[in-house]
Amino acid sequence: MREPVTILGNYLSPYVRKVLVCLQLKGIDYRIDPFAPFIGDETFSRLSPLRRIPVLIDGDFVLNDSTVICEYLEDLQPTPALYPAAPRDRARARWLEEFADSRLGEVIVWRMFYQLGVKRYLFNETPDEEVVRKAREEELPEALDYLEAQLPAQGFLFGEVGAADIAIAAFFRNAAFVRYQIDAALWPRTAAFVERALALPAFRALAAFEEKTLRTPVAQQREVLIELGAPVTANTLGNIAPRRGIMKVE
Ligand SMILES: N[C@@H](CCC(=O)N[C@@H](CS)C(=O)NCC(=O)O)C(=O)O
Fold it and tell me: Ligand 1 centroid to 53 CA: how many Å?
């Protein structure tokens, strides 16, 4: 029986969600320090040079970046496989995961969720309505057109659910947090695919923690999550006043 791994990361991050779902599917036990990256202390800066979440800590081994972490989990425990075996499928899975992490991340996380949630409630700043409008009306529809041509009508991309499916679905959970629902008349495959993925027990197990986090000010999130039974670490690295990230995103 291995020691649980530790995840530094907040339940509202789609990148953290991706890793938690992969851990759950592989049956790897974990604890989470559920803080927002903007309140991470100096130890966090040392462990995460870009001051980003998720971070995985496995004993004395520290890893950054959700994709790198999921690939490590796959190597550590190959079953159930979260990446297909055939070279072309495997490459395509990596590309679709990358498309989600980079493009859906840019549009859904930074131009919608960050603007309407983090900027307003953590930094007490007014969202840039034009950035949000353009994301909802132009950029996300373009990404949805692409996904609609890639996603299967039934099931998941490569048979059983895998990292690419998980990554794509994880971002649309954040879209829902800012009241964006995929229009099933325009993108029927994508709407059904996301619904199917988010209905999996590994996603559903996180929903109550996500909803509680959404409704709770950052400083109290840890306590309410403990009360709710989340597998929270004994100590936290999230204890400074909110400060901007170091990567340029706006
Ligand atoms: N490529 C990274 C992106 C991680 C990322 O951007 N995480 C966000 C949270 S949703 C973050 O930590 N943002 C803080 C910042 O960029 O300053 C990954 O896949 O883990």
Answer: 5
Ligand 1 probe mutation, 7, 10, 11, 15, most atoms within 8 A of CB = 15
- The pTM score is 0.97
d(CA 1, CA 80): 18
Residue range 87-201, CATH number: 1.20.1050.10
Q: Which residues line ligand 1 (CB under 6 A)?
A: 13, 15, 37, 51-54, 65-67, 101, 109, 245, 247, 249
- CB 32 within 8 Å of CB 231: yes
Q: Which of 17, 48, 53 to mutate to test the pocket of ligand 1 (most atoms within 8 A of CB)?
A: 53
pLDDT digits (tens, 9 = 90+) for 119-167: 988 898 999 999 999 999 999 999 999 999 999 999 999 999 999 999 9
Going from N- to C-terminal start, the domains of the chain cover: 87-201
Strands 5-8 and 30-33: parallel
